[in-house]
Design goal:
This protein has 171 residues and is of the alpha/beta class. The chain is 34% helix and 13% strand. The protein is globular.
């Protein structure tokens, strides 16, 4: 399909599912890393900066939700599969600079991150004007499904979006 796929490893093979108020520095290094990664890849490769997409599952999806809230001006579209809204976004709201198209995916058999939790995150973005889509994968638990043509469906969603005026640098 002619795209670069980059999947960084989370710190300590993880990403914090919540940002404790007493330790908010979890957010800034990860946002700085995302910015540096986008800048570095853009300098090294022929990257269409109007078509930067973010996709994540579980804690990666929670990180996607954070990225859309904090870096929407750089992201053309996002897919959050089995992700929740990480604190502090739950309390303070999204307040993204740009309304980013998002696809929220959940598995009907997911007991680790139930569909209701994923829907809560989606509702927060929808309430703030982000164009959202909802996809339930019947019989799927807490994993990326290779059934139901999911990879193609994700690509169709992502590839139909681009930033209109190119990315803005975060402040």
């Amino acid at each position: 399909k002619g795209f670069y796929l980059v999947y960084p490893q989370g710190r300590l093979q993880n990403w914090p599912p919540f940002i404790p108020e007493e330790n908010p520095e979890h957010i800034e290094p990860d946002l700085d890393f995302f910015d540096a990664l986008c800048d570095s890849l853009g300098q090294r490769y022929c990257v269409d900066k109007t078509r930067i997409y973010v996709v994540g599952t579980s804690q990666g999806a929670a990180f996607v939700n954070l990225l859309v809230a904090k870096r929407s001006e750089r992201i053309a579209a996002a897919v959050s599969h089995a992700g929740w809204l990480p604190e502090p976004l739950e309390k303070e709201g999204i307040h993204a600079k740009r309304k980013c198209p998002m696809l929220f995916i959940t598995g009907s058999a997911n007991t680790q991150v139930p569909s209701s939790v994923v829907r809560e995150a989606m509702t927060c973005y929808e309430r703030e004007g982000h164009p959202v889509q909802w996809l339930v994968l019947e019989g799927v638990g807490h994993q990326w499904s290779l059934d139901q043509n999911i990879n193609e469906r994700v690509w169709q969603f992502l590839s139909s979006h681009a930033l209109a005026n190119g990315p803005a640098r975060p402040e």
